[in-house]
User: Which sequence fits this backbone?
């Protein structure tokens, strides 16, 4: 028979376990020698063979924490405990880990954005009993998400490839255990809740009307000769934030770009737009900056086209292998059609009169022909006469305009 004692610092309870299953009678004494549990008589067992374990309240100090010190545990399989086994356990308090939990998003992840919740906690030698990460979508989405929240267990990362603007909530719950040197097993729970606001480029459209109104008010005051035009500070900051937003976005710093987008939303929301009717300024008292959550769709582009940029490496009679550098078109599949002729296939993608293709060879000593172009709605053709048996890497860019 082996019996262990477990303290759960989250529930403030303790329980015993036994293996193999057996009925156990027991007494437990707190660090002051007080009998805090007496389960030693017929019909009043500490653990029964059918339940294998039972939970009991631990003594708490004036702060509501478990009393620290040496606990004495006496147990036997016989009623009255004529020959109990005595063990002592020293509860030293719980050195709990600190959760490192983060939620971030990528507005530009093709095609519907991406949001990630990551547990980066260093748990050391402590054991993860179970872990749950949840991401709650913003309220008010149309259509509503199929599942809310999205939940993962055990894994340290939850990734959702369906981003929406608005306030997300990430929740992590981790149950941990560790064993003290004297064999006392400590259980506890860590939990964290993060609110993460997603503000993508499309979200700025929802405050555009308000920006237009305060710009009109500012312009009207300038036209009237005012030395203190309304919203001068707001417009200066909004333009600075938008410039920084564009820089961060062009550098691929999507999280920083989102932060600047949110600064614009917050700035306009603080405005209060009452510009009256002087000097032709239309009334803008109903400046609504409430953000309506909306799903992200990156199949459209600010440039007026979708783009695919890749390096194609081809050897012998094998299909080209693509290293994709940029992609807002979709997953183009490359195959070798004939010697020096290669197909890029993606159904119903390459629109007539709206598809453009460019191909180059990044080498100075290449003398063959390179060309590419639309073959059909489903296929783009690439040609480079390198000859079967040799290896060559070419650079290809495809654009499909709107």
Assistant:
């Amino acid at each position: 028979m082996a019996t262990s004692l477990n303290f759960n610092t989250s529930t403030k309870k303790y329980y015993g376990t036994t293996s193999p299953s057996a009925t156990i009678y027991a007494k437990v004494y707190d660090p002051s020698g007080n009998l805090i549990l007496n389960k030693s008589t017929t019909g009043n067992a500490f653990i029964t063979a059918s339940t294998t374990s039972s939970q009991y309240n631990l003594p708490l100090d004036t702060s509501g924490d478990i009393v620290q010190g040496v606990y004495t545990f006496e147990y036997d399989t016989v009623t009255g405990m004529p020959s109990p086994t005595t063990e002592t356990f020293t509860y030293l308090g719980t050195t709990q880990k600190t959760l490192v939990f983060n939620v971030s998003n990528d507005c530009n992840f093709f095609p519907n954005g991406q949001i990630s919740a990551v547990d980066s906690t260093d748990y050391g030698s402590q054991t993860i009993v179970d872990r749950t990460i949840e991401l709650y979508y913003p309220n008010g989405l149309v259509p509503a998400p199929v599942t809310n929240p999205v939940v993962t267990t055990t894994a340290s990362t939850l990734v959702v490839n369906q981003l929406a603007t608005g306030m997300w909530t990430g929740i992590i719950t981790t149950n941990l255990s560790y064993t003290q040197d004297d064999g006392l097993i400590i259980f506890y729970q860590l939990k964290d809740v993060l609110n993460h606001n997603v503000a993508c480029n499309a979200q700025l459209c929802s405050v555009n009307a308000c920006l237009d109104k305060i710009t009109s008010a500012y312009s009207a005051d300038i036209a009237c000769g005012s030395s203190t035009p309304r919203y001068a500070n707001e417009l200066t900051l909004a333009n600075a934030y938008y410039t920084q937003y564009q820089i961060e976005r062009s550098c691929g710093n999507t999280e920083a770009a989102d932060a600047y987008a949110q600064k614009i939303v917050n700035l306009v929301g603080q405005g209060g737009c009452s510009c009256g009717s002087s000097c032709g300024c239309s009334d803008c008292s109903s400046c609504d900056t409430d953000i309506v959550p909306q799903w992200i769709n990156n199949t459209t582009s600010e440039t007026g086209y979708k783009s695919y940029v890749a390096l194609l490496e081809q050897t012998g009679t094998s299909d080209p292998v693509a290293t994709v550098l940029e992609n807002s078109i979709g997953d183009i599949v490359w195959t070798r059609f004939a010697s020096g002729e290669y197909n890029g296939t993606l159904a119903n993608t390459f629109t007539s009169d709206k598809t453009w293709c460019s191909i180059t060879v990044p080498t100075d000593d290449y003398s063959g022909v390179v060309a590419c172009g639309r073959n059909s709605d489903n296929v783009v053709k690439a040609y480079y006469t390198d000859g079967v048996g040799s290896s060559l890497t070419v650079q290809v860019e495809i654009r499909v305009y709107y």
User: Anything to note?
Assistant: The CA atoms of residues 89 and 368 lie 81 Å apart. The radius of gyration is 33 Å. Residues 201-280 form one domain. The first helix runs from residue 201 to 204.
